[in-house]
Design a protein that fits this description.
151 residues, alpha+beta, 4 helices, 41% helix
């Protein structure tokens, strides 16, 4: 259910044909701009500004990068019993903090203490996450107007 990801996995990306073609087109745009500047022609001032604009436009587009999607995270709470050393893991609840006394132990009925709270990256969304997303989508769906149906 929960798999921690290495940062190296995120950084490893294959080179796609689309990226190669995009970069070749932008480099060609910069080269065309340089040709406009150096070859000049009859109106060298106009060609200089056209070339300069093409170079600026091409170099700006090369630097634009797609923002990576924010990873889905899940926050977990680890609870320990001080008497029998039983450890349990549950989803984080609002108001949890370390050393907070929580529900009683199933084995010895002593109150358990929160030992750790941490967050992990998920490769796939959990059931709870997908149910929350479905509820959000249902809220944002436009409702059908019943008055338009005529019989």
């Amino acid at each position: 259910m929960i798999d921690e990801e290495d940062d190296e996995e995120i950084l490893e990306k294959g080179i796609s044909l689309k990226n190669v073609l995009k970069n070749l087109l932008l480099v060609a745009l910069i080269i065309i701009g340089a040709l406009f500047i150096y070859l000049g022609g009859q109106d060298s001032t106009t060609n200089f500004f056209i070339g300069f604009t093409l170079i600026c436009f091409g170099s700006t587009l090369i630097q634009i990068q797609k923002q990576p999607a924010e990873p889905i995270r899940q926050t977990l709470t680890i609870i320990k019993c001080s008497l029998c050393n039983i450890t349990s893991v549950r989803h984080y609840k609002q108001g949890d903090y370390v050393f907070k006394m929580t529900e009683s132990c199933q084995k010895c009925t002593e109150p358990m203490k929160i030992a750790q709270i941490y967050s992990v990256k998920l490769k796939k969304p959990t059931k709870e996450m997908t149910e929350k997303e479905k509820a959000k989508k249902e809220k944002t769906k436009p409702k059908k107007d019943k008055t338009t149906n005529k019989t």
